[in-house]
Amino acid sequence: MQRTSGKYSNSPFVRYYQNNAVLQLIVALSSAFVLFHFTITIMRIMRYPEQEILDSVVAYTTLPALAALKWKVWTVLTYGLFHMKQGVLSPEPAFWAMFSNMLWLYAFGSVVQMLIGHRHIMPMFFYCVVMGGIVYLLVQYVPGLAVPAGRYIGGAQAGITGMAAASLTIAPRYRFYLTPHFSIPLYVVGIIFGVLMFLYSGMQVVPLLLIAGGGLSGVLYVLLLRRGYNLAELWYSLFRRVGNTVTPREEAYKKHHYRRDEVENAARRQKIQAAQRVDDILDKINRKGYNSLTQEEKDILLRASKESD
């Protein structure tokens, strides 16, 4: 990126990207998909056993069964970043599932972003992902709904379903205009999306409840926002606190620079005084000759000549 007058070029695309949280989220999810499956591919090329790939990569990023969760609680969040085929022991890529999810995310997310602002996209998506993951784990306490220990789930379905439910809650009469005279109601798009999610889950109860948990979270997010509870502020305040813990405080920053400036100024003053002393010695030589110098003055002149060399 080019720099102009010490600042980054403020091109139209940069401004569009900075204010388009849906596009930022799509880029982040796509990058995570590539990184996840690139790592698995490299391990396969290096002939790692499939079980070792599951144990070292998949088990630390996607959501396991409740019995295998143990202390890896962060997977309740990270599973929404990494798409893979569901219900298989081998972590095969799910490119078309990821690709279609990004299209749905763009469709529903754009509606939410247009109606309530881009600052709600990231918080809403990840709240829905987390709540969907929590529901997925909790329902496994119900007899007969336990998930096999070797099964992992990954994908953004809960977050996208939450975005779809939120858009329908905000503007149920919204229409997608494909041409000036032809449009599709938002609820029709929502029904199509719901049917596809139902089929994608394999009509299994626990994955369906994960998706339903994400959808319910999207509805609750909008209802709370209408009542004046802005959950996005909790999200951004958390990131500000984290940023403050890893960023030096302003007082310490100023103190550090004050001490550094003191040292630099003292060195500068000494250098100026030394130069003035040499000038005085040279003036004395011009007036009285070299033999008039004291031994100290000769030493100063000698040091000055060596430093200039």
Class based on secondary structure composition and strand pairing: mainly alpha
- The gross shape turns out to be elongated
Helix content: 55-70%
Number of extended strands: 6
CATH homologous superfamily name of the largest domain?
Rhomboid-like
What is the makeup of the main sheet?
Answer: 2 strands, antiparallel
Poorly predicted ranges: 1-8
Query: Which class of the largest domain in CATH terms?
Result: Mainly Alpha
- The overall pLDDT average reads 82
Structure description:
By secondary structure, the protein is mostly helical. It folds into two domains: 3-246, Rhomboid-like (Rhomboid-like fold, Up-down Bundle), CATH 1.20.1540; 250-308. Helices cover 67% and strands 6% of the residues. It is built from 13 helices and six strands. The strands form three sheets. A two-stranded antiparallel sheet has the order 1-2. The longest helix is centred in the C-terminal third of the chain and has 39 residues, at 250-288.
